[in-house]
Amino acid sequence: MEKPINIFVEGIADEKFIQDYVSHLLNIELSKNDIIKSEGWTNINSKKGKGELIINKMISNSDNGGLNIIIFDSDSDYEKRRKEILKWGVDNSVEFQLFLFPNNSLPGALEDLLEKIINKNTDKKILTEILRIPKINFNILHEYNELKNKKVNIDFKTKKFYRINAILPQTAKAVGKE
Length: 178
Fold this sequence. Notes:
Largest sheet: 4 strands, parallel
Number of domains: 1
Number of strands: 4
């Protein structure tokens, strides 16, 4: 029997990237039920609402022999965010593995990783809209508002959009350190 895995991410872009990356790297198709969007550190750190739901989901998954993985942005201070999340786990008696974007050792976010791996010829306007992350520095932020209401579906696993193999060696070494 396979071990149930819950992956806790911050938002939609993280969910999409993780689905595509796991599919590419491990040839495993994750469902939307495998990935739980927390909407950020402040939400899981709250004692009520989303935080309480996440704690309960992690405890239940661990009780069933499952694995919990948190994949969040390290933001401006990698070590501080790492310590905060690990302390939160101890304080709430939850078990998980931790990975912080962009590379589990530096400050930053998913967007920093994407800037390094997205093919230079990709239409940046489409990527910005799909991922809903106007933070990517593509010098088109002023165009973001024009794109907000467009719906475009793209499979980011294709080499046309990602140079996904560019991150395999670094990520493979970093996963599981916690």
